[in-house]
Amino acid sequence: MFAQENPNTLIHAKSPYLLQHAYNPVDWHEWGEEAFAKAKAENKPVFLSIGYSTCHWCHVMAHESFEDEEVAALLNRDYVSIKVDREERPDVDSIYMDACQAMNGHGGWPLTAFLTPDQAPFYVATYMPKQSMQQMPGMLDALPQLAEQYQKNRDRITDIGDRVKLALAEGMQADPEDIGVHTLENAYNQLKEQFDQTYGGLEGEPKFPMPQHILYLLRYATWANDSNSLEMAERTLKQMRDGGIYDHIGGGFARYSVDHRWLVPHFEKMLYDNGLLAIAYTEGYQVTGAASYKQTAKEILDYVSRGMRAENGGFYSAEDADSEGEEGKFYVWTKAEIMGVLGDEDGALFCDVYGISDMGNFEGKNIPNQIDADLQKIASKHGVSLETLDHRLHASRAKLFHVRERRVHPHKDDKILTSWNAFMIAAYAKAGATFNESVYIDLAKEAYRFLTSELFKEGRLMVRYRDGEVKEKGFIDDYANLLWGSLELYDATYEGEYLQQASYLAQEMKRLFQAESGGFYFTGTDAETLLTRPSSWSDGAAPAGNSVAAVQLLRLAEITADQSFFNDVHELLQTTSWRLERYPIGHLHLLQALLMHEWRGKTLVIVTNGDGLEDDPVIRHLRTSFTPHIQPLVIREGEKDAPAFAKDFTAIDGKNTYYLCENFACQRPTTNGEGLLNSL
């Protein structure tokens, strides 16, 4: 292995992922015209490597190949090598991940692509070892072979690239199909067929949290009055919390579990997962009132504010799975370590509850979990009440946390991404309103203030901030997710600035990304020209930008009574209707928009003189209960920026006055909040 003393050109980057490769012996370039012009001039193919700074297998490939002198010599001789941080350039990642899935039937990171100087891929893979093994080609074999093919069989290479480019540009075109209630039922039935009845989530492994599944099940259960869909959501929420995928010592969720029981996580923690899961647990609490969901949501948010928050108010992107070169080392324990910290009595109690043994459950050590814990039996065994058990466990977790804090922490990716921060803003705002925690709302406000002051350049929302540098023009995800955060902050505060910002984001989103056929492209009209102009429809670990845009535009339409937003969502749903019919489970966040349409949403206008707003029983109900079909609009008397349809609404006798509106028609106003709640 070899690490050169002099850095390559990546040393000038701000991306933590690119900087991790700045001292590789590979002559890396950042994505850009200069690199492709060099490939053209030197008549070389492009070796493209895409990953992110907390990716375990990216680290493995880097150590095996990119730090290796022999591999580097082949790359430097035959290729122009480009490194891309997928979190900064999801547009580039999207194109070549689609190509990988089309060519191989699967994808993942690191993503490895061999391109022509015109950006067309002719071979795509994920992780490649240094040496070939079994059916997996290694770098030492693949690099010279593919370089030779590029030089000797240029027509074949060009033909492959052209066919892939055509397939990516065309996508899977199909005629619109009828969608409606049956589509919502199909999605639920498909979820039910693939549901793990014992441990929640979808059957199989690895197992991802997929919070959009939970959000859909909660809405479907409420809309259809279906107890089984609620049970599916609850089982998933409970089992994930009990599993090792949840950090019982410090809070927060890991990215996924390698097994079907949620026991062994891939230990990296991603900001987007924790933002979306905080929303899912908050909504689970709204539906059921279960204290454990509230506790989980708050522990997630407390972890993020403690460990992932920058001084400027933004939130960092991720924490690595590895520390000191070992996956999970920061998080696992021997039984002796736990007994040494807690002592015999509390140690034995903790080990019983959290599945700690001498043998361990992960490479001879223990991942704390409650998968098999029966708290009532354990309390009886130790002769304590459940209340005392909870109190002692809380104290034990605090002791273990302080000991763990002295360990070497995993690497932290400290770039601030607009789209992921927007998820956290939405999570803090929703939880703050639901749990009446003003500190969460303040955290949401501070992050929002940072994004709107630092991540806009000449009115254009940008992707990333790090070390004073703002980079890349925002994608549909950035606009749609920040629209979500704006509306959640509005619902948490009823301050007009957030509604105004939401309207601005919606209009800019339409201007920059809207397709003539309906829906939104991933990149803006002012973006760099790539191999093709991508669009994202299917949900991954996070919901697709089109999905978030559709749901939030409907919310904004209800508040403002702007018919154009309804029309935009209708066109979007028609454009992708065939996807919703053929694979509904892959578009569950987008199906929220269809469900909202079938639910016949209502707008509740509350006109107030400003006194007693926080104590208003209707507002308290809307914030603490699960009412996604009711969108509140609060107007303070004399407010000049009220939506046009409500400008003439007034407060009766100086009291908070309620106007319930549906289908662009409003009922007679009332000041009887309790009576209104009964009718709702």
From TrEMBL:
Domain of life of the source: Bacteria
Pfam families linked to this entry: Thioredox_DsbH
InterPro entries: 6-hairpin_glycosidase_sf, 6hp_glycosidase-like_sf, Ssp411, Ssp411-like_TRX, Thioredoxin-like_sf
SUPFAM superfamilies with a match to the protein in the record: Six-hairpin glycosidases, Thioredoxin-like
GO biological process: carbohydrate metabolic process
UniProt domain Spermatogenesis-associated protein 20-like TRX: residue ranges: 8-165
Annotated protein name in UniProt: Thioredoxin domain-containing protein
Species name: Salicibibacter cibarius
